[in-house]
From TrEMBL:
Taxonomy, superkingdom: Eukaryota
Compartments where found: Endomembrane system
Primary location group: membrane
Name used for this protein in its record: Adaptin N terminal region-domain-containing protein
Region (Disordered): 661-712, 725-801
Bias (Low complexity): 675-690
Record SUPFAM superfamilies: ARM repeat
UniProt entry keywords in alphabetical sequence: Membrane, Protein transport, Transport
Family indicated by similarity: Belongs to the adaptor complexes large subunit family.
Biased composition (Basic and acidic residues): 661-670
Amino acid sequence: MSVDYLNTITENASRLGMRIQESLSEHTREMNLARSNVSYLEADDSKGRNIRKQLDSSSDREKLDSMKRLIALISKGRNVSEYFAQVVKNVASQNLEIRKLVYIYVLRYAEQEPDLALLSINTFQKDLNDSNPFIRAMALRVLSGIRVPMVGNIVVLAIKKCAADFSPYVRKVAALAIPKCYQLDDSHLPSLIETITKMLNDTSPLSIGSVAVAFEAVCPTRLDLIHQRYRRMCKLLVEVDEWGQIDLLNLLLRYARTMLPRPIVNSDGEEVDHDIELLLSSAEPLLQSRNPAVVLAVVRVFWYAGPPSVHVKVVRPLLRLLHISKEVERVTLSYILVLARINASLFSPHYVHFFMLSDDSRQAKAEKIQLLVCLVNFENHQPIFRELIEYTEDPNDQVVADCIAAIGKCAKMVPESMQTCLAALTEMINNNHDVVVSNAILVLKYLVQTQLSQISGANAVNPSQSSLSIVSSLARKIDHIRHPQARACVVWLVGQYCASDQVTSAPTGIAEWAPDVLRKTAKTFPKEDVLVKLQIITLAAKLLVLNPAEQTLGLIVRYVFSLARYDLNYDVRDRARVLSSLLAGVGSPVLTPEDGITPFEDRGGVVLRSEQVKVVLFNGKTNATDDEHAEHSNMIIGALGVIVGKTTLSDTILPDWHEEGVESTLRDSPDDTPVSHASNVLSVSSSTGSATPVLHPSRGNSPSAGLSTTNGRKWASNLDDFFKEDVGSDNEASSEYENDDSDEEYEDQAEGEDEEDEHDEQEGQSDENNDEEENSEEGNEEDRNSEGNLKNNETGYEAFG
């Protein structure tokens, strides 16, 4: 036993060694091939000097080597069109590899060398009859790639020929050649439309997607050609190649919105046309496609063609795409953002999927912030609010600004979170980061303005204490706020809500912190930004109209207007002139010229009273508005504008619904009716008495044609015994078999055959109907010629055997 065991181990070890050696040799060979192919890309330019000599050589090996070098140079961006004449000579080479590379080269430079390319047209036409479908397809690609108008007729004939090719790959190339021919010469439009019409009847999933591309490029308005093919195209969707599915889905969506009735939603439910249901049911399996572009195309179909009840089916597939890659996530987020603006309830339960990650791109972070704002509601506002506060520590200043703005929008959308948002924004003012401080002030200004927007002019001077506390805290920090827009917001808030009825050390009717803001900003007026200067002038006018008699305040206002009158910016000068004219009727002593200084000119006209000036200055500001959603209201998923953020010329236009649609009968085709099977069908009979099956024809009205039994009759176990049975039954069977030409009669009787068989098993031949009696009489007449019929039966059953 030990010897046998050692022999077995030795044999297994030798086999293992042989397999390892074969595997190593195979890997070595693959590495050598890969190394040899890479050498063409890494070769020096000096080695390409012999290319011309190699192309003229009689050795296929040298020609192949030179063609590989040329294709490698093309891939590196080199211009090798100087070898076109030598390459064209090899277009009829018997070597398949050489011919493929020659086609690739000619296809690349045919447009630059049209005259030399025309010399090889005869060879391309001959290759259209080649036995290799790849050669036929490449020949058509080269013919359609020659951008010479004079070959248009030849290309049209080649397309017609290849459109009827038995290879679906060749038909696919023919469909893709149609747009090229149309761009070359649009006079061939009728012929091309005729070819497209024939190719729309193609049942091959490989070519129908390319036919959809040709249809959209040549005759996109001829949707009448799709009528009878619509249902067949829907059924072929699952079998079409991935990129063909995208083009076919876009075509079917456009057809559905143009030719089918719009789904109706009423109190009784949804009314959806059965052809729209067919499109949705055929496209639904594609939501699980591995190609993200296919999934997005299906989402577009469901969203723009389906009723609202099917919109929920696109949520999970879109969330799945977020984890494929960063590029796919970027596009998917744009799609989800458009859908969330229309119906946020679909994605609100899945808000966790849109939390930012540290490695997200800037665009992805911005879109996730917008999505969180769209999805916020009372149930999820607290975790979203905490996330947004956490994002304010992001190193990207734009992301920080977007997060702070999002906090303000959340406070507007969920009023219950207003106080929490105000507290968080107020705390951000103490931050050392200027971007955080400036954006927090902008949002606070927006929130305060929104909160007090419904207060009338009479009550505008008495805002709520919470708003005053926010404004006062901002006013005291004016020296630490450096951002121009933020400083302008603070100055505006101080001027808008500076009125107060409380008795303080400040001038009567003015909050104690307002004059100090004017004093500080007046000192730095020449150095301020234009936005800040405009708000300082407005603040000075508001304080003066609230207390015209205060001497110190009047002097500061006069100083500010004097600086503004001679400012270099014309907007500042114009603002000063307008407000000086408006304040002409206030009656302040500082408006009287002193020491030759005339800050306000006497322009005449209507002079407003003090109360009228208050209305103009304090109630003239419009309420805060948010136009962000209005900018994206016309965005359509599937358009490039969704990704770039603005409309582009290449954006697809989605047609409006046809309210009633065209007649449904226009979409009826012979493919929709079930096709009857061949008439010669063999059935298997069995009985309890014998387990051996017997083959016999399943036609005719006779009980012997189906599963039946006869009293006292034993089933035959073979054909010899079968032919020795009762002659009458044989004649009856022969009479049925001789009537094989009457196929229509058998098809009409096929429906009642099973019922007759069950009836015959219970009652026998005594209860047959009138038609069966007539057939039996015909069988009796044929009994007289039983010998001839028996021979016919023998011949027929030998054929069955």
